[in-house]
User: Fold these one by one.
Assistant:
Number 1:
Amino acid sequence: MDFNVSAHDHQLMDQVDGFVNDRLLPLEQSRQSFDEHDNICEDLLQDLRAEVKAMGLFSPQMPVARGGAGLGPVGQALLYERMNRSIFGPVCFNCAAPDDGNMLVLSKVATPSQQDRWLQPIIDGRVRSAFVMTEPHPGGGSDPSMIQTRAERRGDRWMVHGHKWFITGAGVASHFILIAKTGEGARDGLTAFAFHKDDPGWSIIRRIPIMGPEEHGGHCELRFDGLEIPDENRLMEVGQGLKLTQIRLGIARLTHCMRWLGLAQRCLEVAHAYVNERKGFGILLKDRESVQMQLGRVAMAIDTGRLLTMRAAWRLQQGKKARPDISMAKIQVADTLQLAADTAIQLCGARGYSQDTPLEWIYRYARQARLVDGASEVHQSVISRAYLENGREFFAWGSGHD
Ligand SMILES: Cc1cc2nc3c(=O)[nH]c(=O)nc-3n(C[C@H](O)[C@H](O)[C@H](O)COP(=O)(O)OP(=O)(O)OC[C@H]3O[C@@H](n4cnc5c(N)ncnc54)[C@H](O)[C@@H]3O)c2cc1C
């Protein structure tokens, strides 16, 4: 791996830094910037998105031919952490979950005409999207082979019946990617489809209240009572729903890590500013060894996460699947985000517990990181499987194995 950053990428990073520092960080300080679910207000978001578009940095992860900046996984790793130094950052650049992962998978697997129909409006910021997979008991969660929502073929259409939940963004999404059961095979029993919010035969039962701040459109529970999907809206072949899911979640997990590393760095910055000026018992907090040990521990955890994330991104860029690499990054960065928020709150004293800094927001948000896109325990199993299959090769340098 080459850790040098090109002049072009440096320039993009500086542009992102400038926007985050000058436009977003000041806005975070006003309660008026937030909606009732603790996310950025829609009106303000639209204005900021227009500014990012004018900078040429909206949807930068998308191909140039579709209006993006053509960033590969390494470029994304460089920019996303900088965007998410602000809690408002990723959504302003159209790099937030779930649209980010949905765009990345549609750009890889959808046909050109499906991309015109389902992808381009998300890239342009004209619609939002959602990924519909997880189900309540006894349906599929960590184990997708348990998915029960069924799509049955009727001529050139599919009829969908079932129940899903925790679907991020469903309350405002227009474009949905659905994973449904179409056969009995553990690996080829699922198929993916696109559908539109105005298609009849499905509904939102409720917006599930959660611990942390919510993405736009919340996390919703959905019922399917005969949604009809034309076969032309099937994504990939019949039976390739699990494959689509793996393609989507691989990169989506990693872009979560990229963003969370920015949030973790922000926590450290807030703590840094406080311990730099706060005195107690005759000395500055930053001169206390126990404070230094806490800051050092978090800084090292963040950089460990950055190395794992960048290695996984680099391997993806070499055309590898990098599954164990992504799992390692996901576990490390999810834990680090929680550690960083918790440590920063502790070091900032009562101020850390207040809403005068973004720390309490990040602390509430951080707990989901160990669950979304695969619980940490499931990722440990992925790593273990790769080790058992590859033995010493598991530790090979270079582009590695899958
Ligand atoms: C904020 C948030 C947003 C989400 N957004 C979406 C979305 O947009 N679309 C979507 O489809 N889903 C979404 N999800 C769902 C998420 O992907 C699932 O929660 C996750 O896959 C785990 O599934 P589950 O909740 O059914 O947990 P379960 O499968 O019931 O597992 C419960 C726990 O059991 C343990 N466990 C499970 N399997 C194993 C194993 N093999 N080895 C060891 N321990 C294990 C883990 O500790 C796990 O946390 C979201 C979840 C959250 C919290």
Number 2:
Amino acid sequence: MEKSIMNFHTRKWVKPEDLNPNQTLFGGRLLQWIDEEAALYTIIQLENTHIVTKFISEINFISAPKQGDIIEIGIMATEFGRSSLTLRCEVRNKMTRDPILTIEKLIFVNLDENGKPAPHGKTKVTFVKDRFEAE
Ligand SMILES: CC(C)(COP(=O)(O)OP(=O)(O)OC[C@H]1O[C@@H](n2cnc3c(N)ncnc32)[C@H](O)[C@@H]1OP(=O)(O)O)[C@@H](O)C(=O)NCCC(=O)NCCS
């Protein structure tokens, strides 16, 4: 597979409603943000909105963001399967680049209109802007 790079697209500002009782970012909130970011990445790559999260590997929470921190979520594609797409995720502090979390594998599956796995036909990362330029 062609080498893909980690793309830090989405930034989040840690707010009071995102905190756990220890006053740091609630892990469940971070996973919600990551799952949505990874799903959007998959939809854009596979050009299909009918996808699901199939598998998430070990999650390494490296450090705990505090209220007011700006964090950024990085996603990269590591493997295009037949119906699946495997992603890697890194979250870091936007200003200091201190690592916050890593997930080695998030696997999404491309579905047909009946909710069954379907081949996506993609083999490498593509960019929406190139799709427009190709027209
Ligand atoms: C996604 C789903 C349709 C897949 O069904 P399935 O019977 O496992 O499908 P398949 O065996 O054909 O596998 C489909 C792909 O997933 C991969 N896969 C299946 N189980 C896996 C696992 N445990 N770990 C990693 N990959 C897996 C397969 O390798 C295959 O990839 P490929 O086509 O690129 O080779 C089904 O498991 C499902 O509906 N799960 C619930 C999804 C969900 O609700 N997610 C949360 C909300 S988005």
